[in-house]
Amino acid sequence: MSKHAPSRTWGLAQPPANSPGAARERSRWRWPVLVSLLATIPAFYIELLEQLPTPLATALYLMAAAVLGGALWRVARRLDHPRQYLRRNVLDLALIGGFALAALLPASVESPASLAVRLAVALLSLVRMVWTLRPWITRGGLGYLLMLACAVLCFCGVGFWALEPRVQTLGDGLWLAFTTAATVGYGDIVPSTPAAKIFAVFVVLLGYAVLSLVTAAIAAMWVETTERRIEHDILRELHLEVSALRAEVAALRVQGDGPTPPNLATPPTAPNPAPPAKKPAG
Asked: Transmembrane region positions (predicted)?
């Protein structure tokens, strides 16, 4: 693979590390893409609710396709290999085609093919929104994840309040959103309309994922606290052993600088014996 080729993850290619202009362009288009993807949520329910005109849904889908295609092209034109980058962004290309197809088909429950296309586009949009929010989701921190979970549950509660006739108040919508996201299902309030049932599917997928992140963050915080305590105990024991070793080394040095014990003293060297006197000749 060429060093200029972007990495491929879940059908989305990141700009190469040596292309700061493309990375800045992708970051600049992050919020417009997210807003356009969020706009496709009411477009999905326009004909299911039969309260808003169909041209509005068509306009929202076409807007999302235009924004996503513009963002993809603006990033690709700053790279050395734009075609290779476009081929690797399978999810964005599929969403652009899906939005264009959904704009031409009526969103009616009487048309299984049209409903299947819009459901597939909605699932792909959910994956793309999660990918867009990935830098904030993976940022960590229990407080941050709690705020994210509250925002998601509030959004889902408002959705149930607008889609389900049995939900009379916003509090009932929030309660239904929490029980649906937590997969509890007490049965006091249940989705009854096709629009509410379809919305409940996305609430389960999104809400359960967010709640799982919160519980995982709490578990990680407990595990981290336990690991820190164990590391503190190990370091304290290590410091005690090092201190004892230093004391022993200091004691050995003191003994080495003192007088030499008698049993280890070097015996004195005996004087050389005098040579025998020579006898006189004759």
From this structure: 29-46, 58-77, 89-109, 115-131, 143-163, 198-223
Phi, psi of 93 (to 5 degrees): -65, -40
Of 113, 132, 151, the last residue of a domain is: 132
DSSP H helical ranges for the chain: 20-28, 30-49, 54-76, 82-88, 90-104, 112-132, 134-137, 142-163, 170-181, 194-257
pTM equals 0.60
The beta strand positions in 50-183, using DSSP E, are none
Q: What is the pLDDT of residues 230-254, one digit of tens each?
A: 888 888 888 888 988 888 888 888 8
- Residue 5 pLDDT level (bands cut at 50, 70, 90): very low
Token pair for 201:
């599917």
Tell me: do 121 and 38 sit in the same domain.
yes
Euclidean distance between CA atoms 70 and 58, whole angstroms: 18
Sign of CA dihedral 175, 178, 180, 186: negative
Contacts of 166 (CB under 8 A, 6+ apart): 172, 189, 190, 192
**Residues facing residue 8 across a β-bridge:** 13
